[in-house]
Amino acid sequence: MRTAVIVDDEELSVEIIKYLIGRYDLPIEVVGEAFSGDEGFKLITRENPDIAFIDIKMPVMNGLEVIEKVSRDPKCKTDFIIVTAYDYFEYAKTALRLGAKDILLKPVEPELFLESVERILCYSKSLNSLFDQIIEYVNCNYQEEIQLQQCAEKFHTSSSYIARMFKKYNNTNFSAYLNDLRIKKAKELLKETDLTIKEVAYKAGYNNLNYFYRMFKKSTGITPNEYKGRE
User: Fold this and answer.
1) Which domain holds residue 182?
2) Is the pTM of this model over 0.90?
3) CA–CA separation, 157 vs 162, rounded Å?
């Protein structure tokens, strides 16, 4: 389960976001709400949520100022989704430069909201609740040593059944999905942080640096150092 906060000075907007989270049965727990920029900053700093839905125009501090201030903390893990009535193109460049993952215009279209959240979750909801739980577990614990049999035992099912679900819903196998997820996270860390290659490997779930190099090059065609050096 991911955690989220909503920072918006319009109570209706807060309620709509909570409604959409429930409507799509998303694995997100809203752990706080704030109705001004300064209170939003305090809330995000205190809770360090996985996701923050944040407006731009708010009292005291605007949303972009909040994102910039929060992002100075190296421990910040929050992905920001901006929800605003302002024209997208006017703020897109600044928002994306500050690390916002997406911008949604009010009134929020449900389908676009779902697509935006799924991009952060790194997977799309399926029609199988058990498979969705397994995918969520893998996405939240990819840094750990996760094995197919371990997942089967945790979710009280068989490894063969999980394997069939991965093939049916993702057209891949468990190991390939996990490795693709780890490489994706590694690429984000290489581009967005100043961590060393070894630190990136560890945070992405690879305890063996040589194996990380091999899998990264197999996936991208270049080494982690070459990827980090790209503009």
Assistant:
1) 128-231
2) no
3) 8
